[in-house]
Design goal:
Order of helices and strands: EEEHEEHEHEEEHEHHEH
Helix content: 25-40%
Radius of gyration: 22 Å
Number of helices: 7
Largest sheet: 6 strands, parallel
Length: about 260
């Protein structure tokens, strides 16, 4: 197997420094951004003989049939299966954490989209039988009853998506998320659940706000909740459409995986 790593870039290029892909005899993992530069890099890797490491510069100009105008320096290195596993583990750690409550149609659609993006997703439901047998990589299924008890165990920096089969469960999950953020503030730290997204209508959220106020939550705390979820301007109630809107919203967020809590 040959590991190809972007070591340096100049000008307009499809991927940033540190991006990698692996070329094996029977498959290719990762991407340098596609286009003719990737085609040439794959061909070069397959013809690489016994050199332990080699660097080659690719100019994204007329010679490659691309008009980006930038330059990519690529390092080519032979690796084994253990080194590949280390790369994949490091990549997994770099992914941002998401907690998805709810195994319904929308939840399933979101799971499949997030699996293609740089996220580590914990998928939670009170119904153990709800999860499919095969789930995408970077997804951990967790049965929790009561479902809201899982909130305390979420990774710091998690974006939380709430869409259980029950409005009562949704309310309890929201409450526990707000309590967790309140505890962080009491310790002088920032919220460690930077995004709390609740699926539903404005009527549902208005009802939830009234109930949460009765339970002692202030307006500033209620403002931490985003409802409805999904990037504005994307209409449609089909699960796949909602999933795309939610994924786009997460990508737009600049939340950090680090926490002071």
């Amino acid at each position: 197997m040959i590991l190809i790593t972007v070591t340096q870039t100049q000008g307009s290029v499809p991927r940033e420094t540190g991006t990698w892909m692996v070329v094996a005899d029977d498959k290719i993992m990762g991407t340098l951004g596609g286009g003719h530069v990737e085609f040439q890099a794959i061909a070069y890797a397959k013809n690489l003989k016994n050199e332990s490491e080699k660097t080659k510069r690719f100019a994204l100009g007329p010679s490659l049939g691309q008009c980006c105008g930038g330059v990519m320096d690529l390092a080519f290195e032979h690796i084994d299966s253990a080194q590949l596993a280390q790369l994949e583990a490091k990549q997994d750690v770099a992914c941002k954490p998401v907690a998805l409550f709810g195994g319904g149609h929308v939840g399933r659609a979101i799971i499949h989209i997030l699996a293609t993006l740089p996220y580590r997703t914990t998928w939670i439901d009170s119904r153990d039988e709800i999860f499919p047998k095969d789930v995408p990589s970077h997804v951990i299924c967790e049965h929790s009853d009561p479902v809201q008890s899982a909130v305390s165990q979420l990774a710091s920096g998690s974006a939380v998506l709430i869409m259980s089969f029950s409005h009562a469960e949704d309310l309890e999950i929201v409450q526990q998320c707000l309590k967790r953020n309140r505890a962080c503030l009491a310790r002088g730290a920032n919220h460690d659940l930077p995004f709390i997204g609740l699926i539903g209508s404005t009527t549902k959220w208005a009802t939830f706000q009234n109930r949460l106020r009765e339970r002692g939550f202030a307006e500033a705390e209620l403002a931490q909740v985003t409802c409805p979820i999904g990037l504005e301007g994307i209409s449609g109630k089909e699960p796949a459409v909602i999933a795309v809107a939610v994924a786009a919203q997460l990508l737009r967020l600049n939340h950090s995986t680090n926490s002071d809590c």
